[in-house]
Q: What sequence folds into this?
């Protein structure tokens, strides 16, 4: 069986750093893994491991800017359209790897996760090639600074999750920036921002945290009742469908990556006897419980 892990998340969330760490960890545990770079704008020095498959061998943003006069954002979208039309190129390369992990480092453009057809199409193709695919979605720990920021991060993760419908793991990255450190207080700890208890409330989102007004006691901001009702409805949704807990990623702690890898392995194995399911391949029964 071949396995693919899509490493997704907003720009700067730590996707390449995590992909590198995962490669190191898999190598140390004697498993064969290959890095796939899907970011046509990736800087060459962002990889500790040379990618085995690199979209930049097919097309890069620099090409589109210099040859087609696109700007950086238009160039990126052009690259994905181009890859969509040349999926056989990717399939041919992926076909070379048997019984391996492919760690697929994705770009950070949020539209790619919310509405662009590229990733769902990629997942369909991987499934057709008989690959078991899961995704990790990284959100950086600075999103825990403020519950409104956190709320928007949770919604972005959920939006990506429903767009792809594959086994999914949310990760709170860069935890070294907020976890108290015995030698030197971490940034968050110094600001009095985080306590262990508060961190736990974010990692497994506490509905009360999300609906409470900003500020405390008499200083609490009055909440517009219409927004309060909307927030409560969203919180209820999160509570009813508990898919949005976050695993902490602290690269200074080797156990952290091991725990995440075991979750990835578990989600990959889940449903091993079933045929891989294509995303968006829904029928009426899928909506039966939604009334
Ligand atoms: N403190 C800390 N910094 C990190 C960690 N992971 C990544 N960084 C830093 O965060 C920045 C962005 O990391 P990348 O791994 O390039 O993030 P990315 O998500 O691949 O970025 P894009 O490809 O631009 O979307 C770099 O300066 C990293 O050194 C971490 O666990 N802790």
A:
């Amino acid at each position: 069986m071949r396995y693919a892990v899509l490493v997704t998340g907003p720009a700067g969330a730590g996707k390449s750093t995590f992909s590198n760490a995962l490669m190191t960890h898999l190598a140390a545990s004697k498993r064969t893994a290959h890095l796939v770079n899907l970011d046509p704008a990736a800087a060459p020095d962002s990889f500790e491991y040379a990618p085995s498959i690199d979209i930049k061998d097919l097309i890069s943003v620099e090409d589109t800017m210099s040859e087609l006069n696109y700007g950086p954002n238009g160039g990126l979208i052009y690259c994905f359209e181009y890859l969509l039309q040349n999926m056989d190129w990717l399939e041919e390369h992926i076909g070379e790897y048997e019984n391996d992990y492919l760690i697929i480092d994705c770009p950070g453009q949020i539209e790619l996760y919310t509405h662009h057809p590229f990733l769902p199409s990629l997942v369909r193709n991987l499934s057709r090639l008989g690959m078991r695919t899961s995704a990790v979605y990284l959100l950086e720990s600075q999103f825990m600074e403020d519950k409104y920021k956190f709320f928007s991060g949770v919604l972005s993760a959920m939006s990506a999750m429903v767009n792809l419908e594959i086994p999914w793991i949310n990760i709170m990255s860069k935890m070294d920036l907020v976890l108290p450190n015995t030698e030197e207080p971490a940034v968050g700890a110094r600001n009095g921002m985080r306590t262990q208890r508060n961190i736990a409330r974010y990692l497994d989102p506490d509905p009360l945290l999300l609906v409470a007004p900003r500020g405390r006691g008499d200083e609490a901001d009055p909440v517009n009742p219409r927004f309060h009702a909307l927030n409560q409805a969203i919180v209820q949704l999160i509570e009813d469908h508990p898919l949005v807990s976050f695993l902490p990623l602290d690269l200074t702690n080797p156990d952290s990556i091991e725990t995440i890898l075991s979750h990835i392995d578990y989600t990959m194995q889940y449903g091993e006897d079933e045929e891989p399911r294509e995303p968006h391949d829904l029928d009426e029964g899928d909506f039966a419980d939604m009334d």
